[in-house]
Amino acid sequence: MSNETLQSVSQFVLALGIVLTGLGGWAAWYYGRQIEKEKDAATDARSANAGVIKPSAVPVLDSSKAVYPKMELSDSGATLTFPGPSGSQLFEVIGDNDLRITKENGQITVSATIRDAHGDVIARIQKNEWSVNPNRSLDRNYTSDTFEVVDMKGEVVLQVRALPDRIQIAAKMYGSQGRGIGVGKSMNPQKLGGVIELAEHGEPLHLIIPPLFRYPSAAHMGEFAAAH
């Protein structure tokens, strides 16, 4: 092989090396940016104190076929069904807690104000848009269709899951005057089903709401405690 040929080969190898170096540098920059974006998104999720839940599938409500929105007490199977017109209220209790389920534009929405026994607001959900008071809650966790709040005592005080044909809800809440209501499911194997508990001023709610998610959320964002 002549010296000219060897020189040409060397120049080609050098040029190829320059191109590969450039491609390698661009790839390292590009994928590094993608990793940073993923980290930023994860950080935003862990620090978020507001969001929105929505069903994972298209709503199947159809009043012409007698398919109406329902509120289910946790996943107990006990439901309240609402055949009323769009936008009307399904369920409301304890005045300023304003727990209500509505049907709007073919979708089911839930609204509630969650207060502790002293009347301080822990969290709110307004037509599926939720917000948490970080000064009155220990933690919260969520996915696109499920939301949960833990109070300062480490007890779950709100669980909401948006399903195509119903809202599943479990909650322990008090009115501003101290009267309480709990909705969820019985943990007594002898009395399975839905539970609605009332407590007068000064009385505690005894309802236990097992957590859906793993905690702390900073290490387990969106991770369920068991298969759902």
- Which regions have little confidence, pLDDT < 50, spanning 5+ residues? 37-45
Mean pLDDT: 79
As a percent range, the share of strand residues is 25-35%
Q: Which term fits the overall shape?
A: globular
The level of helicity is 10-25%
Distance between the termini: 70 Å
SSE string, helices as H and strands as E: HEEEEEEEEEEEEEH
Largest sheet: 8 strands, mixed
Radius of gyration, CA atoms, in whole angstroms: 26 Å
| Total domain units | 2
Number of helices: 2
How many individual β-strands? 13
Class by SSE composition: alpha+beta
Commentary on this structure:
With 228 residues, the chain is α+β, with helices and mostly antiparallel strands. It folds into 2 domains: 1-47; 51-220, no CATH class. 21% of the residues lie in helices and 33% in strands. It contains 2 helices and 13 strands. It has helices at 3-47, 217-220; strands at residues 50-52, 70-73, 79-81, 100-104, 107-115, 121-126, 129-132, 137-142, 146-151, 156-163, 166-174, 180-185, 194-199. Strands 2, 3, 8, 9, 10, 11, 12 and 13 form an 8-stranded mixed sheet that branches. Strands 1-7-6-5-4 form a 5-stranded antiparallel sheet, with no helix packed on it. A hairpin with a 5-residue loop joins strand 2 (70-73) and strand 3. The chain is globular. It starts with a helix and ends in an 8-residue tail after the last helix.
